[in-house]
Amino acid sequence: MTVTVDAVVVGGGQAGLAVGRELQRRGRSFVVLDRETEVGAVWRRRWDSLRLFTPAGFTHLPGLELDAPPDSSPTKDEMADHLVAYVRRFALPVESATTVAAVDRDGERLRVTAVDGRGWRARDVVLATGSHGRPDVPGFAADLDPAIARLHSRDYRRPAQLPDGAVLVVGAGNSGAEIAVDLARAGREVWLSGRDVGHMPRLGSRTYPILRALGRPGAVLARRRLRGGGDPLGRIRPGDLESAGVRRVPRTLGARDGLPVFDGGSTARVAAVVWCTGLRPDHGFVALPVHGADGRLLHRRGITTVPGLYAVGQPYQSSITSHLVGGVGTDARHVVDHLVRRDIR
Q: How far apart are CA 259 and CA 148, in angstroms?
């Protein structure tokens, strides 16, 4: 059976819910499709000790504040609870356990097909699955000794998942630093491999709206500065790694005799490796010409070259805060403004 609506939102995380609320405010018929079995499930699956580096006073969706002190660091479960409360507060039509198999053209409309055969026709489709879909693991991972346990940060929950012995965390960005400290505080020997990405100054809840207001120029400047590196550390402060007992080592470049090899040629005998090497976009279900050579969506502030196809939740989409919980609302509003103007032409 195919259902016709004004718009389909693919993805039921913070970006998708922000878009849904904007569509609701404009009186559009829509549905939010989410592959998870319940709202907030992605947040609940993150590691137990995770706290966001953005303050609670900024880290909330439009129209509903987070129930926490404004300058506190929200936990991952507080974020999941916030998404659940948002859906309930505004009665957003979320179809959970719905994995999208394809988005393609059907005459003058777009067609969205789920893996279970259900379908939707809409004038507009908003992709709100973000840019973090599939774990990005280096090719040399297959050359490591099979006895070395391996886990991607997406699947890391707690130190007890890993066997006894030293742990190598590959990737020294925010996830890598947080997981390294989590392991070290549990008494594990931890090696953190990767470039020093620097640290953000501690920013309060009033600062992030200023970063958001810098808009596109701020995003361009930030991306130029970060080219070839990762985002600076947010919640982990200078000295936290050292005080926790984490050992910093150079980048991991390959494997030799089953052992990880660092820049400079040295190796390490470890019992486990945690890959904190990021995630790649996963928009292969979009059967339309909107993909760059690296698989990322081609768009300008969320507007693609395919009429009616949009995106929200992409890193630096319109500002430094575009991929943060407190930043998706601005992009959702911009995209819905555009599709409403297009609909009335």
A: 9
244 and 258 fall within a common domain: yes
Query: Residue 59: what are its φ and ψ, rounded to 5°?
Result: -85, 75
Place of tokens 């070395």: 148
Rounded Cα distance, 337 and 110, in Å:
19
Q: Could you give the CA distance from residue 18 to residue 333 in angstroms, rounded to a whole number?
A: 8
Q: What is the number of other CB atoms lying within 10 angstroms of the CB of residue 61?
A: 23
Residues 12 and 142 in one domain: no
Other CB atoms within a 10 A radius of the CB of residue 179 amount to 24
Condensed to tens digits (0 to 9), the pLDDT of residues 96-114 reads 999 999 999 999 999 999 9
Distance of alpha carbon 75 from the chain centroid: 16
pLDDT of res. 315 = 82
Same domain, 32 and 79: yes
- Could you tell me if 175 and 241 lie in one domain? yes
pLDDT of 223 higher than 60 = no
Which alpha helices (DSSP H) does 146-195 contain, by range? 174-185
Please write the tens of the pLDDT for every residue from 294-345.
778 888 999 999 999 999 998 878 777 777 888 899 999 999 999 999 877 6
Partners of 256 in beta bridges: 259
Q: Which domain holds residue 142?
A: 135-198+233-275
Mean pLDDT of 211-230: 48
Q: Is 294 or 242 the better-scoring residue by pLDDT?
A: 242
Residue 221 lies in a domain: no
Gyration radius of the chain over CA positions: 21
The pLDDT score that the predictor gives to residue 220 is 42
Secondary structure (3-state) at 75: strand
How far, CA to CA in Å, does 70 sit from each of 30, 65, 206? 32, 9, 9
Q: What is the pLDDT of residues 20-75, one digit of tens each?
A: 999 999 999 999 999 999 999 999 999 999 999 888 888 999 999 998 898 899 99
Question: Which backbone phi and psi does 335 adopt, to 5 degrees?
Answer: -65, -45
CATH of the domain at 21: 3.50.50.60
Tokens for 78, please give them: 């507080």
DSSP state of 205: T
